[in-house]
Structures are given as C-alpha cells and as structure tokens.
C-alpha cells in the first residue's frame, strides 16, 4: 500500500524557500506486519507465520490472565497452545498419521478429509443434541426406576428386620416364661459337636484332640445374642460373639459353613437347630 503526500517547504519568515521544491512529494509505504504472504509467491511466508503465531500466543496469554480460574481452558489445551509453531506442525502430522493408521483418514488428502469431517459434524450438531437429549431422558427414567426399586427393597429389609426381631422377642419371652431362671450355658466338647455334625473341623488340630476342646455357648445381654467361648484343656482361649439374626441371614443366603475363631468350621443349619432346641424350645 502506497500513500502519496504533497509537502511544501517554508522558511522561518513564512515565505517560500527558493531552495525547496514547492511541488516535492514524499512516498510512504504502509506494510502489514501480519502479512504472511510473499509478494512474488502466493504461499505463506515462514517469518510472517511465526510473527502471527507469536502475536496470537501473547493475546491468548493476556486473555487467560483476565479469565477466572473456573473458566480457564483445560491444562492440556493450554500446554498445546504454548508449543512453538514447528512443534504444533509436527504434532498435527503425527495425529494425521495416527488417524490414517486407524482408518479414519485415507491418503492422499487427509487434510481435506478431516475438514470435511469437521464440517459434517458441525452440520449434524442439532441431530446429535436431539439424540443426546433422548438418551439423557432414558437415563433419567432408568435412574428414577432404580431409585424406586431401591426404596422398595429398603422397606422390605426394614420389614423383615422388624419381623425377625419380633420373632426373637417372642421366642425369648416364651423361653423366659417356661423357665424364669437364667438360662445355663450350653457346653459341649468338640468331639460331641463333631458327632452331631455341628463342628466340621478345627484347623491345625487333629480329630484326636477334639476331646480336649470345649465350646461354651452363653446367652448374651441382648435378645438373640450369644457368646461362644472356647477352652482347651480347661484353659479359656477365645470368645466369639454370635447373633442369631446373622445365622438366619447366612442360612437365607445359602451359606452352609461359617468360621469361628478363624479356625473352627461350623455347620450353619445344625448350629441354628442346636440353638433352637436349647434356648428357644423349638
């Protein structure tokens, strides 16, 4: 772009100077510093691209400095934006090659194909939004249904827990009415419990030593609770808290064998039968 300016020279007295050319012209050329094309070639100039890229980076940095933290761009995108122009070119080429390897793009013009894909995606944004809206509505309906089922099952659990507690209260009350004295502990040798099928095995202890092990089942302070004490050669070893409700839960879940003291394997069904017979008079 060329600007022609006509200039007249004057002396200090205000008269026209004889040495100055009254019709002299000054030619000024205005150049766009972001002009990325050479005059001779219709191709981008490398220097112009670098200058434009640096200016964009600086402008983005100023914008990010004024942006609140919650609204700032993702850190990975910021890192990509801070790359040099050559690094960005290499990364773009790597991504294009990767897309070609995955079959998304095909040679010889992957750049045109990716532009067409982006344009197609922009045109179909409305369809995508509608589809996502339908899927979101289905997910909300599914979530609502699951919440209703969860609430129903929670109510069922509370009902059965209340029912079991009522049954235990009834059994305990019946037992107390028949025998007002404190219920004695149930003591059985491990060998005897094995004969009844209640005791399956004791880890690291041979069956010949079962006669030296005694299990005492003592009613606990709360309804339906027991304390199982193990004695070996008359010496009290360990104590295991037992809840009748937990046994019923194991029976409901189909668990046949449970562990006591991390060593003794007990038959759940036969233990329930033993407790019912001794403490609940069933």
Automatic annotation (TrEMBL):
Biological process according to GO: mitotic actomyosin contractile ring assembly actin filament organization
Transmembrane segments: none
GO cellular component term, pick one: cell cortex
Annotated signal sequence range: none
Domain RasGAP protein C-terminal, first and last residues per copy: 85-206
GO molecular function, one term: GTPase activator activity
Pfam family for this entry, one: RasGAP_C
InterPro entries xref list: RasGAP_C (IPR000593)
Superkingdom per UniProt: Eukaryota
Name of the protein this chain belongs to: RasGAP protein C-terminal domain-containing protein
Organism: Perca fluviatilis
């Amino acid at each position: 772009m060329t600007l022609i300016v006509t200039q007249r020279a004057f002396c200090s007295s205000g008269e026209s100077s004889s040495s100055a050319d009254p019709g002299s012209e000054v030619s000024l050329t205005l150049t766009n510093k972001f002009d990325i094309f050479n005059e001779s070639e219709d191709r981008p100039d490398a220097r112009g691209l670098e200058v434009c890229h640096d200016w964009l980076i600086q402008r983005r940095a100023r914008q990010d400095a004024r942006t609140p933290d919650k609204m700032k761009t993702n850190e990975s995108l910021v890192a990509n934006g801070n790359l040099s122009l050559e690094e960005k070119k290499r990364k773009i080429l790597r991504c294009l090659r990767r897309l070609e390897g995955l079959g998304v793009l095909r040679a010889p013009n992957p750049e045109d194909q990716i532009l067409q894909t982006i344009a197609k995606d922009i045109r179909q944004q409305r369809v995508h939004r509608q589809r996502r809206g339908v899927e979101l509505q289905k997910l909300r309906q599914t979530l609502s249904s699951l919440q209703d089922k969860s609430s129903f099952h929670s109510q069922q659990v509370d009902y059965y827990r209340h029912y079991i507690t009522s049954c235990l209260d009834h059994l305990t009350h019946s037992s107390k009415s028949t025998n007002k004295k404190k219920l004695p502990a149930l003591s059985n040798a491990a060998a005897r419990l094995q004969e009844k099928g209640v005791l399956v095995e004791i880890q690291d202890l041979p069956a010949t030593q079962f006669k030296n092990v005694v299990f005492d089942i003592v009613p606990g302070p709360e309804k339906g609770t027991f304390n199982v004490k193990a004695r070996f050669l008359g010496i009290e070893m360990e104590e295991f808290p037992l809840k009748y409700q937990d046994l019923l839960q194991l029976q409901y879940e189909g668990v046949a064998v449970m562990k006591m003291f991390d060593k003794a394997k007990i038959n759940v069904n036969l233990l329930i039968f033993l407790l019912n017979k001794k403490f609940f008079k069933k």
